[in-house]
Amino acid sequence: MNGFARAAVRRTPFVLAGLVLGSGLGIGAVAMAVDGDEPLPPEKQAVVDSVVPGTLDLPQVVSTVREVAIDDSGPAAQVAAIKAAVPAILEAYTGTMAMPVDLDARALSLTALKPDRIAALLKVWTPATVVDRTASLLQEVTDVVADQSYAAFDENRFVLGEWMGVDVADGAATAFLNGHMEYRSAGEAEWRQGNETQYQLTLKPGVLGFGGWQLQDKKQLILDGDVN
Amino acid sequence: MTIRRHIRRTVTVLTAMLIGFGATTGVAFGYTFDRAAAAAYAHKWSSNTETLRNGAYKKYDSDCTNFVSQALRAAGMTDDESGAQQWWYHTNGIFPDSNSNTWSVAQELGYYLVNSGRSPWVNYPDMRARYTPASKGDVYMYEWGDNDGWDHVSLASGYGDFANYYDSGKKKNYRSITGGYGDYMSQHTHDRDYAPWNWGYWTQSDLDVRSKMRTVVIHVA
After folding, report:
1. How high is the pLDDT of residue A76?
2. Which residue of A has its CA nearest to B128?
3. Using the beta-carbon criterion (under 8 Å), do A33 and B147 form an inter-chain contact?
4. Distance from B104 to chain A by nearest Cα, in Å?
5. Spatial separation of the C-alpha atoms in residues B67 and A74, rounded to whole Å
6. Would you say the pTM of this structure is higher than 0.95?
7. A223: pLDDT confidence band, cut at 50, 70 and 90?
């Protein structure tokens, strides 16, 4: 190791210490400068003090919106059956997420309604997917059972916007449609509008299903900017 | 000899401190990022009841990123037209009212800020929380959980009481969220001001969507 390298190694701890101190001062200065050098509320200060820097990841893009409707294809009777079944399927599936706003009532409802949820899921999803879908839904429901931040609802209905193309072939179907769900809690007169969404569905025949059809896969892409 | 060594070490530490300080405050990029100016611009050009647009810039149907970029520029962030990572808006010239993709596309802006070094850190806050680590002028970038990438940006414009605004579509008042106060944001399309930073999460009923929703605080320097 030559003299320059030795000097560099010796200085590394001091460089690192300086960077850490300087960054800390910088973050502190930024935090102080945020609102005219006034001290932050203790609750926010605690969040700032405990910040853990992360890295910005790139979510995998697995779906893109179909911008223009395409012609339906396949036997007309089956296309019609699917168009009749899909709104009912979406409504029934979202209905399995229903729960009261009141947290005590919510906890009770999960136990009381569990068989109904399972029955609905068995009707909505194909036998090949229902186990996984039930597990993920129960996890989602469990996650919000005591979560006041969840915009709970008791009733829901689907409002169809536009069919973007149904294709039936080889004992399976795909259905693309735009629409939104509406929600209402007990005692509410008005419906609350969910996001305008494009549903991209794969369906298979199933005796338990709606009009003889069940969901094999569901992707949903939010179309409006009114999520936030 | 000992004194010289101490001086060398002190200079090393101070130099490194300057670099660290610069990287976290924007000084290193040749401008001072004026957070109050970013917030003031955001409040001036956003509203819960009106569609406000600054005539000095073109308008987009989905205007969220265009709006945030304008606020960043109002805070002093300079156009960057060198290298692979660029961020700019040309008012005049051969192609007036033209801009880089990073100016007007949410995900592109987020990646520009991080990859250019203008954001020294990012953080993923608890979606339910009242407060985030965001300072005024930082950028919130949102993913709706619908498998098509980062969807939206808004500007962190301060903290305190939310606007007393009832959203007739969501059937909720801003003040019904986290006790009525906390970090708020300003945004375009859908236009909001003094709105809870996590408004979309608190008003989302579809569990398949909600369970995948994320927000990242992009700290801007």
Report:
1. 96
2. A149
3. no
4. 14
5. 46
6. no
7. confident
A21 pLDDT above the threshold of 60: no
CB < 8 Å & 24+ apart, contacts of B80-86: B80/B116, B85/B112, B85/B115, B85/B116, B86/B112
Residues of A in contact with B200 (CB under 8 A): 227-228
Q: Which residues pair with B184 in a beta bridge?
A: B158, B196
**A127-178 confidence digits (pLDDT tens):** 999 999 999 998 999 999 999 999 999 999 999 999 999 999 988 999 999 9
Residue A16 has a pLDDT of 60
Torsion sign across C-alpha atoms B72, B77, B82, B88: positive
* Identity at A188, one-letter amino acid code: E
| Interchain CB distance below 8 Å, A51 and B36 | no
Which two three-digit tokens encode residue B145?
A: 């959980």
Distance from CA of B50 to the nearest CA of A (A): 15
From the CA of B94, how many Å to the nearest CA of chain A? 32
Higher-pLDDT residue of B18 and A110 is A110
Euclidean distance between CA atoms B143 and B133, whole angstroms: 18
Looking at per-residue pLDDT, the higher value among A21 and A175 belongs to A175
Pick from B114, B143, B207: CB nearest A140: B207
Residue B190 preceded by cis peptide, ω within 30: yes
Whole-number pLDDT of residue B20: 53
Q: H helices of A96-172, where?
A: 103-112, 114-124, 130-144
Q: Which of B89, B83, B94, B91 is nearest to B104 (CA)?
A: B89
Residue of B nearest to A43 (CA): B131
Across the interface, whether the CB atoms of B218 and A56 are under 8 A apart is answered: yes
ipTM reported for the complex surpasses 0.90: no
Tell which of B7, B9, B13 to mutate to test the A interface (max A CBs under 10 Å).
B13
Residue A115, pLDDT score:
80
E strand spans, chain B: 89-90, 98-99, 121-123, 139-143, 152-161, 166-167, 172-173, 181-187, 192-196, 214-219
**How high does pLDDT run on average in chain A?**
86
According to the model, what pLDDT value does residue B93 have? Answer: 83
Among partner residues A48, A63, A183, which is closest to B133 by beta-carbon distance? Answer: A48
A-B interface: how many C-beta pairs under 8 angstroms? 211
CA atoms within 13 A on the CB side of B56: 9
Cβ <8 Å between B135 and A30: yes
- B55: burial class by Cβ within 10 Å (0-12, 13-18, 19+)? exposed
